[in-house]
Every structure is written in structure tokens, then in C-alpha cells.
Fold these 2 entries.
Entry 1:
Amino acid sequence: MALNVYLSGEIHTDWREEIMAGAAGLDVTFTAPVTDHAASDDCGVAILGAEPNKVWHDHKGAKVNAIRTRKAIADADVVVVRFGEMYRQWNAAFDAGYAAALGKSLIVLHGADHAHALKEVDAAALAVAEEPRQVVEILRYVLTGALPG
Amino acid sequence: MALNVYLSGEIHTDWREEIMAGAAGLDVTFTAPVTDHAASDDCGVAILGAEPNKVWHDHKGAKVNAIRTRKAIADADVVVVRFGEMYRQWNAAFDAGYAAALGKSLIVLHGADHAHALKEVDAAALAVAEEPRQVVEILRYVLTGALPG
Amino acid sequence: MALNVYLSGEIHTDWREEIMAGAAGLDVTFTAPVTDHAASDDCGVAILGAEPNKVWHDHKGAKVNAIRTRKAIADADVVVVRFGEMYRQWNAAFDAGYAAALGKSLIVLHGADHAHALKEVDAAALAVAEEPRQVVEILRYVLTGALPG
Amino acid sequence: MALNVYLSGEIHTDWREEIMAGAAGLDVTFTAPVTDHAASDDCGVAILGAEPNKVWHDHKGAKVNAIRTRKAIADADVVVVRFGEMYRQWNAAFDAGYAAALGKSLIVLHGADHAHALKEVDAAALAVAEEPRQVVEILRYVLTGALPG
Amino acid sequence: MALNVYLSGEIHTDWREEIMAGAAGLDVTFTAPVTDHAASDDCGVAILGAEPNKVWHDHKGAKVNAIRTRKAIADADVVVVRFGEMYRQWNAAFDAGYAAALGKSLIVLHGADHAHALKEVDAAALAVAEEPRQVVEILRYVLTGALPG
Amino acid sequence: MALNVYLSGEIHTDWREEIMAGAAGLDVTFTAPVTDHAASDDCGVAILGAEPNKVWHDHKGAKVNAIRTRKAIADADVVVVRFGEMYRQWNAAFDAGYAAALGKSLIVLHGADHAHALKEVDAAALAVAEEPRQVVEILRYVLTGALPG
Amino acid sequence: MALNVYLSGEIHTDWREEIMAGAAGLDVTFTAPVTDHAASDDCGVAILGAEPNKVWHDHKGAKVNAIRTRKAIADADVVVVRFGEMYRQWNAAFDAGYAAALGKSLIVLHGADHAHALKEVDAAALAVAEEPRQVVEILRYVLTGALPG
Amino acid sequence: MALNVYLSGEIHTDWREEIMAGAAGLDVTFTAPVTDHAASDDCGVAILGAEPNKVWHDHKGAKVNAIRTRKAIADADVVVVRFGEMYRQWNAAFDAGYAAALGKSLIVLHGADHAHALKEVDAAALAVAEEPRQVVEILRYVLTGALPG
């Protein structure tokens, strides 16, 4: 068994790198959104032409990014959604809902302080973790049956 | 043509009542989550037994509520998701993603100040409105072809 | 058996009325796009706010109209697509492709002079007719087994 | 991530070659309809036998071509539909509708003068481009996160 | 519970009438193909214009009939397919395969002498009966729990 | 909102009647398998002819019963699966898996002593109850928002 | 583009070998049912135990064969169904219906004398051929754009 | 043709090893749940944190295991479900129902004494075997057409 894992959500910490490093040696393919914040915000107008109205500037970019994220979610066996400490992160919750409706195995990653606010998202998940290390341990167990320690 | 419309999101203002009153006379069936905040939070333990750990208290409740919300979204032609001024509202964004993945027509309702944070959600929508009145006008136009004024 | 029939395409002749009048007495529910050309073009900005750029003016309107057309096609058993003499009518061909992919029974209605240009669309159809009268005759036969004359 | 991209529409300019050349080095597999106009028109009768009636001549050919185009669209992650300056191009719009109904990421490629006539098609797209170069830039960004320039 | 039952296959005996009469009083809606052999053969050309080649004559008719049969199978909970003593009846076997792929509950009705030739069809069925009376008894049992006699 | 609820599992206690009586006045349609044990075991041979081998006797009956249970599960919004004290009840667990794969809202009803053995089934459920009364309370809450007491 | 082609139907002539030989060099994977008539008829009882009743003997075999044929059809892009001169061949028509309902590209292969009896099957096909050579020519054209001669 | 086979059910005998050894040389990929009973029971709390309540201990583990089993079933062409002599094995029956609803080819493996209790599960299967050797023979026949002996 091999797993395709999409890493959605927070782009301001290195949680993705931590998971990918931890999973070295496992038969996992990782995908992620474009995590360069400026490129992600400006891709639409950089390629398809400037927009004076910020709403359409954002709209064009969000749609170009959707080409990547929809493909990544569609191909994923497991979708990990990370909620960090900053920003609204509605796109992370949107991805979680999108993945849930497609029947993907959902792992939610957040601090204990977000538990109440994320209870509907967590209720759709197969695992709720606080640390990237735990995601790695889940992937290892799922693929090999080996538990940590 | 008749429409089934699910009204998701904010539960602390009367935007649902405003839409339902405005749509009086149109062939629309509205559904909504349970909007009694206390009942919604406690339904799981009130029916299925107390939990000392708040996480499981919330978990039981979120799942019982999901029986209602999944049915409502599955039956909906149009899903309206309202983002208000308070709280994280991750469940609203989750519903939007869930509805988008099912191919539902999505209308997002929020103030202009949330436009950037909601750009991915808005990009999946067929309309982005600021006022409940506009949602009513969309429903009237979709059903009758009549424009406001 | 009852049929739900969506009448897509040309909005500048009375072919829809001709079909609906001819089908009086049959157990058919007809739906159609908004056929008021001005309202259809302007619905987005009339409800959701003006756009200085014609592209976004059109974009908002096309999406609001999609709420109606997607619902109508999704509910339809039969999709009739009429190609007239004027305009590009790419939305009609788009609807035909959309309906075909959903497995709807497709009836294409056009003059003989369009046959070569529409060969791919016609190849996906269960009937190709030249006159609205023939669509009525198909509906009557499908529902009652009675042939014309 | 690798992308499978179907290039639909206009067959009288070298836009496909321009995109394929520009995307050299990216992990993209391109497919296209048969772009030899004469072969495409005559394939049905050349293989399955002559037809005195041009309608059935075309019908046989359109269906044989559909074996290729349906496979290509079904396998595609991204469908690019090019509308050129000549002909009705209803098959291009049909492909766009077909792809949209299957949930494919749609990129529409056309000159600004077609914007109004294509507004319904564009509204279903994740990107609307005017130049093949922009399609290449989208594919590069989606796969690598790199913006042009 | 109510059942929608499509009665496919043989059109030269009164097995449909026997089932419908026997099921009087049960909450069953029956549908069937057009069983007037001449109308069924000629519907295409009678409505859409004559064809000198019998193959296209048949083709037009088979497609018009498909509007009815696909709708009927799509709406059915149970598809009963009757194989009689005469003719090739490939359309009956085609309907059985079509229904099986859609997950419909299949009941096959044929004499014992056809058992070997129909073994693949029967293997996809939930019941294999020899007499219309048995189909009625199945419908009565499924709806009411009552067994014959 | 109205709910269609399938009551699967144990047939030797009156839990179905308790739920149906408790839900009087709610907009719920209940379905159930045939609960007459003898009729359920013998329906296949009683209608379709005796079998000397008990395996085929059972096989014929199980398939006739599947016409009812598949229809009921397919139509259900909520599937309640009751595990009692007696018998293997593998058909109940099979129904639970079948319902889960179709995305139905699953409520499992069993005594605390079965919790460990049913952990995989419970993990797929939106509620795990011990008493029929709790199922009624869930249905009432889902439909009306009212909590018990 | 590569094609997966399932060759269904007649097992008493060498039409499969003719197609596979003709398609040498094309990127096609062929599958087929077990064409050893005796093995196909007896596989159920040979593996799972003898049955005194021929109906169950056949039933066991038909189901074991279905493991292969369902997999093959599910994986196929193109399903070729050959109707020969002998036997009822209901399983071929069943496969055609099954493939049609799954949206597979269907090619039917039969002599002109079967055209009327197969009109419903042919109406669901993208090509109707008389000779295996024509099937090869279609596959070559679909994959390479090259016409015969 | 290659087959992906999921081996579900009993974990206390070496039936999986017997099948895998017997199938050596066939083009089969086998998957299975984690069969280390202790690891399977404790994986949730070992990775995601201890739970004082056994119900939540089990719940966390069952969900982590579901990441593996859902992936395995989703990817499988054939699902073999083994019912042994010990334990309730409701998860095996749940897997069988889940696989059946997804249209997987189901092979059930159990002793004759379980036949009556498993009649609903067996009725959804394409083969019912008593010995692992028979499963190997089915796989060999499906892939190569060769019968035992």
C-alpha cells in the first residue's frame, strides 16, 4: 500500500517539512498548495492580467490556485488540514469540508485551544492530532502497522 | 421550478429570518442548522450521556448535529453560507467546502472586509453578496426572472 | 411516467411556446433559462453591484443564471437544445455537452444547414429534429406510444 | 504532481504546438482530438463504409471521434478549450460543457472579442486566457509554484 | 414503501397485464417500453423523417425509444426482464445488463429451457421466476411481508 | 425537513415499535426488513420453488429479502442498526457497512457490553445509543431542535 | 493515449486473435472472458464443489466468471461486443448493456443480418462494424489519427 | 489483468498467509488490515493520547485503522472476507457490506456451520468458499482461466 497525502492549511510554519522529513522512507507521496504567500496571492493577475479591483485580483488568483488544490485533493487518500494560530484560515476549513464530502480520510491538526471552534471539522475526521509528529506516526502505522516507541 | 435552500453559518443575527421573510411567496423551502446555540452545543450529551472531557462532549454534539446538516445540504439546490463578524466560523467554511464538492450552487454572504480572507470560498461560489436582501433578489430572479426595482 | 424537459438555447423566436402549447395535456414539466435577454445580461450587476469592466459585468450575470440552469438541467429527464439562425450560441452547445455528460436524453433542434457544424452535438443526441412540432411528437410518443397522424 | 491536459477546440492554428513546446520540461501529458480535418471528417465512412447521405457520413465520423475525445476528457485533470476566429466551433463549447459537468478544471482560451458570447463558458472556467503562453504559465505555476518573469 | 417496477422484454404475450392485474392493490407503479411493435419500429422515421436505408430507419427508432426506456430504468427500483420463446430478444438482455450496472434489483422471468443460456443474466438477478404470478408474489412479499397461500 | 429512517437488525424484541411510537407526531417515515422470522427465512422457496439443499433455500430467500432491504437503505436518510443479545447478527453489521459506504447517517443501538466488539461499526456512526428512547430523542432534536426534558 | 479494450461475446471463432494481431504495435491492452467453453461452464463447481442441480452448477460458474468480466469491463475504455452466428448470446447483449450504463465506448461487431435484432444495442454504440479488421482500424485511428489505406 | 485483493476478517489463523503463498506467481496485490491485535486495539491512544474511558480508547483506534481499511477496500477489485470460529467478527461483516455497496467482487470464506447466519452476506458474494485453497483457485482461474487439477 502507498498513500497520497495532501497537506492543507497553515503556510507560515514548517509543519509540512516536519511531516515530510519524518515520513522519509515511507511509501507516501505528499502534495501541498503553493506555499509562497505572495505568489499564491498574485498568480492570477501575474499570468492573466492586472485587475484594479482587489476582489477580482483575488478571484483570479484563487481560481488558478484551485486548479492545483482540486487536483491534489482529488488524488489524495488522506487530507491533513492544519489550523495554526494566525489568520482566519477559512480556506483550510473549506478544504476540510471539500475533502470530507469526497470521502477522503481526514486528519485535522491543531492546538487544544481550537478544539471547540473546530468541533464540526474534527467530527468529520478520522484523527485529530496536535503535533506533526503524530501525523507521521499515523502514516507509519497505517502503512506498516508499527506503533511509536 | 422550486428551490431547496440551506442557510448555513452565523447564528447570532437574524439574517435567516430576513431572507425567509423577503422570500415569502416564492417557491422556496428553507432549511437551517439548529440555531439555538446552547441546544446545539449540548445535544450530544443531553441525549447520549454526559462526558467529563469537553472534547468528547463536543464530539458527540457535532455528530448529532451532522445528521441534520448533512441531510439539509444533500437535499439543497442552493447553499447560502453567511460569515458574520464574530467567532472563527470554521463550520461555515466547512459547509461551504462540503457543498462545493457536492456541486451545490453556493452563495456566500459576508461583509467587504472579509473578502480577502474568503477568496477561496468566494471563488467556488456562484454569487457573493453583502446583504440578505441580495440573496432574496437572487432567489426571486432565479425562480421568476424578475429583477429588483 | 412524467417527463421533466429543459428547453435550452435560442431565445429570439417562440419555439418554446410552440412546444409547450403542443404538449398541452401531456404529463410534462418544462423549464427554461430566463429568456428576457436584458434581464439575463444584467442580473448580476443589478443584484450584486455594478462593474466598470464588461467582463466582470458578464461574469456576475452568467453565474447568477447558472443557479437556474444547473438546477434545471440536473432535474431534467430530457434536454432540448435549440440552435437558431443568429448569434454564436456557445451557451447552447455548452448546455448540450453538460447534459450529455450527466447522461440526460438529448434532443437537438436545428435547421439542416447547421447539420455539419453540429455533428458532434448531434452524435450525442437521441433525436435530431428540425421543427418544434417534432419535439412535441417525440414527447407524446415517449409518454403515450402514440405516433403522429 | 503530474497533470493530464486535454487541448480541445480550434484545429487551424498551431496553438497546441505552442503550448506543448512551452511546457517542455514540465510533468504534463497532453492529449488532443485528431487535428487532421479531412481524416476527422471522413473517419467514419473510411472505416465503416460509405454513406450517400451526408448527415450519416458525419454521424459515423463524429461517433468514432468521440471514442478518442471522451477517453481524453475522462482522463484529463485540466481541459483547455480554444475558440478561434473561424467556424461555429460548437464542438469546442460542447467539450467545455462536458468537461464542466465532470468537474474538470477548465481553462478557456479566446480573444477579447469573444468574451461576451462566451460568458457562460468562461463562468464555468478556472482561468480565461487570451494567449497560449498564458496557459503554459498556468501549468508551470500549478506544478511548480513559479510565476512568469 | 412503494415500488417503481419496469417491465422489460417480450412484447407478444400478455405477461405484463397478468402482473399488473395481480398486483392490483399494491403500492407499485409499473412502466414498460412501447409494446405496439409497429409503432416501436417506426417511431423514428414517422416523427423525424423517412430513411431509405433500413439500418438508419431502425437507428432513429431505437434512439427515440431509448428516451423512454432509459427514463423508466433510471426511475425503477425493480427491473423485471421477461425472455419469451420467440426472437433474439437481445434488447431484453441489454436492458438487464444496463439495469445491473445501475444497481437495480433485477428479476428475470423465463422458462426452464432458457436457464443455461441465461446463466450470466440470472447470476446478476435477485430472483429468477418462471411465471408472472411469482413476480406478483415477490412484489407482495417485498411490500407487505405476506407469503402466498 | 422530513426524515426517512430504516430500522435494521434485531427482530426479536419490540425496539422498532418503541421508536415508532415515540416518534409519533414527527415527520418521519420508517421502513424495516420483514420481521416475521419464518416468512423471512422461507420467502425464496415459498415463491420460487423448493430447494433440497438448505444453502440454496437460504440463498433464494436472502436475495428476495434484499429487494426490500436495498430499496429501504437506498431511500433512507438515517439507518438505525440494532444489535441485540442473541444470534450472530452479521446481517445487521452488513447493513451498517452497506449504509456507511453509501454515506447514510448511521445510528447504532446496542448495550454497553457490545461496545468493544462493535468499535469499528460505532466509529462509522454519527450516534451510538443504548436505548430506543435515545433514538427517538435524536430524531426529535434533528427535526425540531428540541432536547429531551 | 493508451486504450484498454475488452473483447466480449462470441467464443467459437478467432475474431479476438484477429483483432489482437492486427493491433500489434498499438498501445492497447486487451482483456477477454475465459474463452475455454468447458472451463467457463464448470469453473464454479470445479473450485467450489459439485451441484446436483444444473441451475446451481451454472449459477456458481457464472458468478466466478463475473469476477473477471466485471473487472475487465470496469477497467476498459472501449468494450467490443461480437455477436456471431450461433447460440443465443444473451451474455454478450448483457455485457453491452452493462458497459453502456457505465458510459464505456461501445463497438458492436456483427453481420448485416443481425442489424434489425440488434438495433437497440447498436443505438448505444459509437461504432457498428462487420469485420474484426474494422475494429483494428478504429483503434488505430483513435490512437494515431491514421486512416486505413 | 492484475488483481488487487483485500483480505478482511479473522486475524487469529494464518489463512492470509496460506492464500498469499498459494497465489505466488499470480499477478495479485494483497492488502490486509493490521493483524497485530494489540497494535490494532491501541493505535489510537498510542499515537493520539490516552483515554480513561475504554469507549473512546476504542473509538480513536477504530478510526485510525479505518484510514487503512477504507483505502484498501477502495483500491480493491476483490474483497475476501473470512469468518472464523471465534469472536463476534462484526467488523468483518461490516467490511463485507461496505464492499458490496461499492460494487466490489466479494468472496466470503467460512465453514459450513456459519452458512445460515451468513446467508445475507453470502447472497451479496460472487463466491462462497470454505478453504483458503479455493480462494487461490478462484484467483488463478480469474487471471489465467486455469482450473485446479
Note: Chain F is about 50% helix and 15% strand.
Entry 2:
Amino acid sequence: MSLEKPVIDDVGAEIFALAARIYPICRSITGNGVRQTLREIAAHIALDIHEVPTGTPVLDWTVPREWNIRDAWIRNARGEKIVDFSRSNLHVMSYSVPVQQQMSLAELKQHIYTLPDQPDLIPYRTSYYAENWAFCMSHRQFEALRDETYEVLIDSSLTEGHLTYGEYLHKGETSDEFLLSAHVCHPSLANDNCSGIALLTQLAKRLAGVRTRYSYRFLLAPGTIGAITWLARNEDKVGSIKHGLVVSMLGDRGGPTYKKSRRGNAEIDRAMVHALNQSGLSPAIEDFSPYGYDERQYCSPGFNLPVGLLQRSKFGAIPEYHTSADNLDFISPQALGESYRLITDAIGVIEGNGVFRNTVAKGEPQLGRRGLYGAIGGEKNAAAANMAMLWILNLSDGEHSLLDIAERAKLPFAVVKRTTELLAKHDLLKPVAGA
Amino acid sequence: MSLEKPVIDDVGAEIFALAARIYPICRSITGNGVRQTLREIAAHIALDIHEVPTGTPVLDWTVPREWNIRDAWIRNARGEKIVDFSRSNLHVMSYSVPVQQQMSLAELKQHIYTLPDQPDLIPYRTSYYAENWAFCMSHRQFEALRDETYEVLIDSSLTEGHLTYGEYLHKGETSDEFLLSAHVCHPSLANDNCSGIALLTQLAKRLAGVRTRYSYRFLLAPGTIGAITWLARNEDKVGSIKHGLVVSMLGDRGGPTYKKSRRGNAEIDRAMVHALNQSGLSPAIEDFSPYGYDERQYCSPGFNLPVGLLQRSKFGAIPEYHTSADNLDFISPQALGESYRLITDAIGVIEGNGVFRNTVAKGEPQLGRRGLYGAIGGEKNAAAANMAMLWILNLSDGEHSLLDIAERAKLPFAVVKRTTELLAKHDLLKPVAGA
Amino acid sequence: MSLEKPVIDDVGAEIFALAARIYPICRSITGNGVRQTLREIAAHIALDIHEVPTGTPVLDWTVPREWNIRDAWIRNARGEKIVDFSRSNLHVMSYSVPVQQQMSLAELKQHIYTLPDQPDLIPYRTSYYAENWAFCMSHRQFEALRDETYEVLIDSSLTEGHLTYGEYLHKGETSDEFLLSAHVCHPSLANDNCSGIALLTQLAKRLAGVRTRYSYRFLLAPGTIGAITWLARNEDKVGSIKHGLVVSMLGDRGGPTYKKSRRGNAEIDRAMVHALNQSGLSPAIEDFSPYGYDERQYCSPGFNLPVGLLQRSKFGAIPEYHTSADNLDFISPQALGESYRLITDAIGVIEGNGVFRNTVAKGEPQLGRRGLYGAIGGEKNAAAANMAMLWILNLSDGEHSLLDIAERAKLPFAVVKRTTELLAKHDLLKPVAGA
């Protein structure tokens, strides 16, 4: 398998362009914003779009009513729109019930969220399961509000409808699956998670022409309830998931940050850590914790799937998180390209991993006779170039995988893989079936 | 179980008062000093006092003759008592045989112990198993001794008699036992171990009104030979001891110091380490070593009981150890109260520990529907308060105990316990029988 | 077993003297240099010298043709010998084919090796398996070569013959073996490995009079092909090798450096690490890697023998490595004596190790009654001297070896061993058969 060609092309720029295209859409956990987003994605890959009716029981949850919004504003006493949904969809708390009403400043303040410590930013707020309505605005604007009568409008609907998610399967040589999952429920937040949606789309698109060992399942679904809905409808498929990544916030300059799966030492954990350590970036590796994105669901004890979380900056740990500062200026083609490369590197490890047996197990094979070894002995550093061969031959006892060897020998997996292929061509290594 | 009430009362002051009351008594490994001490304890708890005859074989040992002392002094040539047992019982080496004799300074010096490096302090010395006699004095006094004839008297007896120890059992819901053991063989040494005797007495007294899961066995016995005697007479009970602590030197401002049981990772070790790490003090955690107090006997390979040692300063490591400086000024109600709290915190962990299973194992349960979750999503720190719930639900797969979860989540055990009870009330957790 | 007497004698000086005696010989992987070296060794120990014919298949290899050299030089246009094999056998690349020819400077330069970064040193080069010829010289000399016609002579032969190696077996009480292996294929390099050949010879000589538990097999063979040849001819004996050391570069002032066996925690690894940590030197302990000396063959996956590598400086890591600076000035009797002591200390651990069971497992045995314990209790440091007894008694539960105990108690193995013998004499310990 090779995803190296896509690295040569300007994948970061294409991811950025797609993220920019879906950035303006007002997404929530249900509704037309999700549909519109998935239609954009479907222009790139053959996405299956699923609609699940309100009221459908899914694990411990129930698919909620569908929320849609057409317009929203606050008008002051002079009729001026001082807050306008059409300027930023963050201005309305997601799942706000409809309202059209005149009210005093005191009443209005009960329905306003701000960030006093970041007075220029609009916060992102939701209230999916408690009926409520609210506006979000900058704290500067909030402080300037005059004591007068306001008119507020939220032209939304909360009705029987559907939850929408998208799914794409790249079929590999086996039915064992690699799950790649991103949430599609956040409105105009560029990093969280237009970046993830766009990156997975470009990855799926590039995978289409590639023969892979594993099948790759891409899931673009609203956070929490979307993953729960997919799990509820696919309990029989869960056993096929051998590796998985939740992705989020892949476009900023921080991190990269990898949170291990609940298992802690799954192959995806080791592959991702290897890719990160080889990246030349300054990765942070974290143990699993039960707070985060949809790895919470995949790693719940009844599933316990080998699914980790890849981000650049860690969610919640940066000032831009869940604010209007998470805009297109906050993400860059370069960071998106790096993130893409990390994921394809980890996929490369998973695809290429395997266990081999040294056919000349007793003593070293005579590499020189086969033209595999530096011919002039005694050179101080002659062996440096041969270390990969020696490590692979020494550890290929049928019990160590190529990733084990790369870790032990502190060599890039790609070098181990390439050298293994060379040794196998000379019949010095044989793959161990079923390992 | 709750021992929190005793923490509110002034337990440190009560422990100090009892320690002060028993401090003047001249204890040894046998004799009336031990009896008098145990009678003082029996005024607080229903202590069983056992008398074991001299000559009784106990494991590899034999109960020694009983030693009692009425008076002792050294008189100079002018008949002045220059050393007087009635002023400090440390002046006479414990188990000194009787003597009344005139002798030169040179002869007398063969029978005097001092601490040249701590010239103002009287050392504490014993000779239980080699017949001998000696006086202990400050090195300053020793150096001032004039070359004249001295008269020495030790009015002691070493006769067939008994070894005496006290035992108290608080019965819990099960016959599984928690052993708490302190030595009662040291004369006027306040920290080592009037502090331990007094603390265990106050703990037993407060436990009396409390329903517990475990039965609590309190053992107040002379060091080494007392523990060996108890073990010899209770070999059939040893299997019931699931947890244990030897206590010593609980009243000074050092440490706290915990020495793990020989097993190294017994539940008591983990519970005590958890309590220490949560205490806000600066604990030292040490691996087991075979030198110390009666954990030496409990952790001998034929028993290998899960019994650790709790001290403040480490024995032998401070200048006051085994000298007249280990007096009532060296211990304080505050330090004793802190030590009491550490022990009851560890008991709280042991009593409250258990294994639960998440009844909604697949995906997260919908906490919001049950009123268990912050209703407004998107708040940067909303999840902080929910972390205990998420950790408990994620790790309650029937294999992790609450203490496992507290350690992994870096949360106080009490928070984990309280949250577990809340989740169990909502039927989200069920206890795993027998775990 | 005791090798302590040899430490008292001036073993370092005797090793140095033998190393100096074999230093001038021109060794290679075959030929008369090896034979002459082994004859020198045979003057000290009853060495078996084996001759294996060219063409013999050995594992994946074939015994090569035998190489011998009588003379070699380069003459300038005036007929002056500017390079002369008789002055340093490093001047000729090992296994150079015969040549006698006139040539221009440009042609000659195709056959010269130098060390530009170490311009005063002659490098050591070999070409065992590619037919070629070359001279080695200092870079200063190389740069001074004038553009004239040179005559070169290499009077060597590469013919059907034999590979020669030496073997010596010290028979112990059991047929379980301890392998000690050094290479004999390097020409005038004092540290690498005249030091190893000489040290093993002196060790074998001193062992001759000593009763040992293990049998000690000494193997002096050319590097790589020699070990492979021995392994091929002794596959049935390999199972008897319970411990082993490859030695190399034992005479310089660096290190000591120990590279663990592939198993990583074999008894030889633990014994050698213990000896190093007790040595007062500044040892470096390294994990196994598949590059180095003949541990590469012994630790190939089909054998996986518990064989480590002991050196002073690490090969390749010092400027003198594989140059004319590795001469007799580079090694010293003192360093050789220290290396000898490290090896005999590790042998002492392996010989003396065993598992015992405390016969008084319940409680501590009464050591005082048996005269084993300080009689005066209460002394602050009385117990220090008794710690070895207490550790041994506490851990002798049939599952901990004496080496386990020494490691855990942080005591020298010799102290643990001596104390074990004392306790066994008092019937407090019994050996566990078969452990």
C-alpha cells in the first residue's frame, strides 16, 4: 500500500479548501446543516448518507428531535439588529427553541452567554437535551447593552425528523476494518472540526485508488449521539474493527497530541506513537481518559475498541477552543498536511506490519555472499548501514513483529519494512502465517 | 462505615492525654509495667489481657522469665544518689539482674552506657537474653564521675512468671480481619511507643459504635516476643487477617513514613499510599525491609501477612530515637491527630473498596436524562465536575476496583466512593459479588 | 569455588606479559598466525587445536581458503621501501591476494587506505570474502607520496587449507557449561583482542586447580567464521551452555561496558551487572544489540544462548579502535587485572547462587540463642550488621535465589553467600533441590 503520492501533491491545501467550503454551514447534532455538509463531502467520495428517525432507541439514548434554524436576531429599541445570526451562527445557542418576544434588558440577560475573560470572542454553546434558548455574544458587546426594551427572534424548529450521518467504506483485501471517525455537529468552528471532516474526506478520496490490506470505514457523524447511533445500528460490525482513530482539531500549529485507546497498547497506539516519534514534531502522548470526543463511545467498556484520538492542540487547552477565534485563520494548509502525513504514516505501519521468521536462524546468514553487506571489513562505521538487516534477522524468530523490531532498534518503520522486503527477496525471511 | 465524627472531635488531644498518662510507667517485655499500662487501656476499651507462663514454647522462641524492678541507684562515696531510677526509668538497662555492691569507678564503668555524641541524653538499653546489668546516663555526667568508691543497687527480679499482652476485637460484618498492632515494651519513650498504644486505644474506642465490614483486631504486646507469642497461639486465626498495620512513633512532626508489606502491593499498601498521597503531608513510601517493628514477624515468609508499618519519622533515623529526648515534648496532639486521620483514611479505603459493573456498558449512559450531568454543553470546563462519573463508568467493567479507579483517575477515594453510590442509586452500577 | 588466590597474585601483569608476547603475530581468520598464537597459549593450558578444511559447510557459511603472508612492501622509484610489512602487519589489508607490480601513483592510490581524521595512525582493514589487495598507511605518509613509479609486493597465498581454533574444557561437578569466548583473528591490535586471549588463558590456567560446579569451555577462534564453525560442529553441545561471556578489549582504562545477552535477564546478565555495580568502577550496562563480536552468533535466534559481551571501552567508540594506536601502550596490567576480577566475581556469583528455604519460616528464628545476634538491644545501629541475616531469612521462601536476595537487599553477593553458609551451618537454611 502506498499513500506517498498524495503527500507529494498539495494535500494540505486541498484539505484547507474543503474545510473553508464547509466552514460557514450551521451544523448541529441534527438538521439541514449536517445534510448540507455531507452533500459537500459526497462531491468527493461515494458517501452513504443515513437518516435515522427521531425517537429511535439507540443504546441508552433516543434519537432527539431534529433542529433547524432559519434566522435569529436581537433588535434594540431603535429596531437595529444588534445581534444577527446571519453574521455568525455562533450567536445562537444550538438547539435553541423558537422565540419572538419583547423583553427588558434584565430579562434578556438571562439568555445571554459571554466570555468575560476573552471579551472580544463569541462563545459556542449548546443545549441539546434541556429546552432553552440563548444568544451568545462578545462580552464587550454585552457590557455596552443599554437598559431598554429589546425584541428577540429565533426562527427555529424542533420537530420530529431525523439524525443524519455519513459513512464511506474503502474495501481492502480483508474485511478487518480500520475506523476513521470525525464529528460533524459543530457550526462555524474551523479546527473543531471542519479540519477533521475535510482531512478524512481527502484521505478517503486518495485511498480510493489504493490496494489495502484493511478495509477503511469513514464515519462522519454528530458527536456522541451520532457515534452512539452508529454503534447501536452496527453492533454486529464492531468485532471487525481492528484499529481506529477519532480525529479532531487537525489544523492548528499545536501538538500533535495523541490520546491512547483504553487498551493503552493496541497496535494503533503503538503505530501512532511510532509515527509521531518519527515525525520531527514535538508530540504529546497521553494515556486514555474518558473525556474527549467519540473515542468515549468506542472505548466504553462494552465495546473497548482499539480507537485513539489524534489532535494537534488538545481540546479545551487553548483559548480559541469553542469560540469564534476557531476560524479559518486558526488553521493552515501546512498543519493540515502534517496531520495528514501522521495519519498516513500510522496507516503505513498498520498496513505493513507483520511477523517473519529468519530462515537461517542458527548464526547469522552470510550477507556478503548475497551482496547484502559492505565488502570491506574493519571500517569503523561499516556496520551502521547494516543495522536494520541485523536487527530484523536477530528478532525475526516468529514472535516479534516488524513494529516490535522498529521500536527495539529505534529505526523508522519504513526502513524496517523496506529492509524486510529485501531480505525476503533473498529468502532469508519468511512471513509467519496468521501472525 | 464512618469514622469522620472522631476526626471532628479533638482526637489528637485525647491521644496525647492517654500517651502522657502511660508515659511514666517502666515497661519491658514482661512484668508489672506492661500490666499497669494495659490496665490504663482497659479503662477505655474492653481489653482482653492474656498471661502466658515463662517457659512456654512460642514458635522458635520461649517465653522468658518475668522481670520486675522496684528501685535502683548509684551512690557516691558521700552517700549521695547520683543516679536514681525513680527520676528516669531509662537509667537502668532493661532486664538488668539484681545487684548491690561497692565498686571502684573502673569497675562501675564496665556497666555504664552513654551517648558520647549526644552528651546530654540518657540512652535506652536492653539485655533481654544475656544476663547482665547496667546503668545508662548522660555522657556529661559520666565524664564528671570522680575516681572514688561507689555503691550500686538494682532491686530487680528475674523469675518464673508471665508475658502479658492485651487484645481487643471489634466485630464487623465479616470475620475477615484488619490487624492493628503496637508494641508495649518500651519504658518512658513517648513517641516510641506511648503514641502508638494511645492512638490505637482511641481508635478502638471510637470504632466501638461503628458498623464495619471487617473485624478489627487490636494487639498491644511486647515487641518481637509478644508478636511471636500471639502468632504461636493464634496460628489458626492468621488466615483471617486480610489487612494489617503495625504502628510506631506516630506523634512527632516528621514523615509520615510508610513501609510496605513484604507483598509490596497488598490492598493495605495501596490504601495507605493513597491516604498518604491525598494527605497534603510529605510522605515517604518505602519498600519492605526485614528490619523494624513487629511487621518483621507478621511478614516472615511462613506467614507473609499483608501488614505494613506506619510511622512519622523513621525509627533510628532521628537523634531522639531511643534516648531520653523521646519525651512528651517530642510529640504533639496535632501530629497524633494527623496520624489518626491517615489511619482512618486508609481504613475508609479498605472498607469502601469494591468492584462494580456498569449496567450500560455499550456507549455512555445518558447522564443528562437522569439529572446527573451539566445541562449546558460547550462550556470549556463543564466536564471537570463529571470526570469522576465518566471514569467510574468507563472502568467499571467488573475488573477494576474503586481503588484502581481512584488511582487511575487521580481522584480522592472518597470522591470515587460517593460518586459510585450516586450512580448505583440510578442503577447505572451494580456491585460484582465476591469481588 | 575460589578464584581469590589468583587475585592476590599479580594476574594483571601475567595477562599483560602474555598479551605482549602474542601482539607481534600477524593473525587473520585463517593461517599460520592463528596457529602460532594458539601454540603460545598451549604453553599455558592443555589447549585442543582444531583444523577444519577449506570448503567445509558451516551453518550458512563455508570455511574459506587459508591465507598466509610472508612479506609485503612498497618501493619508490629509488628502490626505498617506504612501506614495509615487517615493521607493522597492519600495513597490509588482511586477505590481500598476491601482487608484484610496478605502477603509477594514481594506480597505487586505488589500493591504499588511510584515516584522514587521524593522520598519524595506520588503519586496520580486511577483505575476507572479496578478492582484493591493499596497503594501509598513515595519512601523513600518503599525502607525502610523490608522483613517481612504485613497485609493490604482497607475497601472500590464498589456498585450500584450514581454519584453526583452540578449545579448552575445565571439567566441573556438572556437565552444565559456562562458555568463555574470544576472537583470535586480529593482527597487532593489543586491546582488540590480545587482551581477551591472554586474559582467558590466565583464567583457564588458574581454574585448573579449582573445583567448580560448572564446566568452563574456553573458545579461542577467529571472529564470526570461527564461532560459526564451532557452533556448526557442536550443535549437540549448545544445550549445555547455561551461561557465557564473549570478551574483547579488556585492557584499556575505559568502561567497563557490559552488553546483555539477547535474553536480557539471563543469570549471566544479572551476575555480571551485580559484579559491575559492586566493583567501584563506573560501568555502562547496555541492552543487547545484534552488532558486536561473537555474541552475534551465540545470540542468533536459533541458538539464543545466554551469552553477554564484556569490554572496557565500547568497540568502535574510541579513536584507537582498529588503528595502530591499539598497541601495547594502550593496555595496562592494572586494567587487565580489574577486568579479570570482574569476570571472576561474576563467576563467583554464578557458582555460588542457589535457592534456600528458611527452616523457621514462621516468625524470625531466635538468632541470639544461637550466638548469631548482637546481644545488647537498643543500640541504634546494632541491626546494621545483622541485615544480611534478616534479609536472607525473610526471602528464603524457596522462591528467591541468593542473587535475588543480594539485589533486593543491595548487599554484595559474597556477603549474602557467606551469611547463607553461616545460617545453613546452624540449620536455619536448607538448600532447595533442583532450584
Note: Chain C touches chain B through 28 residues (CB under 8 Å).
